[in-house]
Amino acid sequence: MRSKPTGAEWSRLDPIGRGRIIEAELGVRPEFLFAEANLERTLVLVKPDAVQRGLMGEIVARLERRGLRLVAARFQRVDRALAERHYAVHKGKPFYPGLLDYITSSPVLAMVWEGPNAIGAVRQTMGSTRPAEAAPGSVRHDFGLEVGRNLTHASDGPDTALEEVNLWFRPDELVDWERSVDRWVFESK
Ligand code: DAT
Ligand code: MG
């Protein structure tokens, strides 16, 4: 069995990218090789309504308390071009123009978070798209009422997570680091 690819190219890849290389090169699912294989990265946006309402800290705190690890963060305005790329999948839907107006209306806090099965875990912490249907205890339930003001964005799967992380952040903005508490949160550490 060949060993894990090394080098600068490797270190620039996120865990999903690494998993894909492993799968392609070795013909086996990466989870059979590395305990870290379920370590996922996901894009989170604290959207303009949540920023304006002073909920950045609350939302970051919930992700931190969940045990997720911050990989990157930037407070920024969203221009039309970025908004269009981010929401390209919704182009043509009736709510698309309003969605672009909303996301570009005021700054957002863009972040990447990682952890075991982080994509699903973050979606769960955020709650269903429609706040009225979101589970009690989720961000969208606890702070929201309407789908057009649902406070956050979180990637919805491995492919979109990879695309969105790369859309919002350069590789050198993604911080690889360890916390001393990791082994108390991540079973595989
Ligand atoms: P999510 O943000 O939970 O991934 P989505 O990708 O289906 O949801 O839609 C993106 C955003 O578009 C969503 O957060 C809010 C808005 N949106 C979705 N469906 C909508 C609708 N029916 N009316 C108004 N806004 C909607
Ligand atoms: Mg979505």
Strand order of the largest sheet: 2-3-1-4
What fraction strand? 5-15%
Ligands in the structure?
Answer: 2'-deoxyadenosine-5'-diphosphate, magnesium ion
Quaternary state of the chains: single chain
Task: Write a structural description.
- It is a single chain.
- The chain has a single domain (38-178), classed as Nucleoside diphosphate kinase-like domain (Alpha-Beta Plaits), CATH 3.30.70.141.
- 41% of the residues lie in helices and 15% in strands.
- The protein has ten helices and four strands.
- It has helices spanning 8-12, 15-26, 48-52, 56-66, 80-86, 96-103, 118-126, 139-143, 158-168, 182-185; strands spanning 39-46, 69-76, 108-116, 152-154.
- Strands 2-3-1-4 form a four-stranded antiparallel beta sheet.
- 2'-deoxyadenosine-5'-diphosphate binds next to loops.
Which structural traits does this protein have?
4 strands, 15% strand, binds 2'-deoxyadenosine-5'-diphosphate, 4-stranded antiparallel β-sheet, alpha+beta, 189 residues, 41% helix, Alpha-Beta Plaits, binds magnesium ion
Briefly summarize what is shown.
The protein is 41% helix and 15% strand. The chain contains ten helices and four strands, in the order H-H-E-H-H-E-H-H-E-H-H-E-H-H.
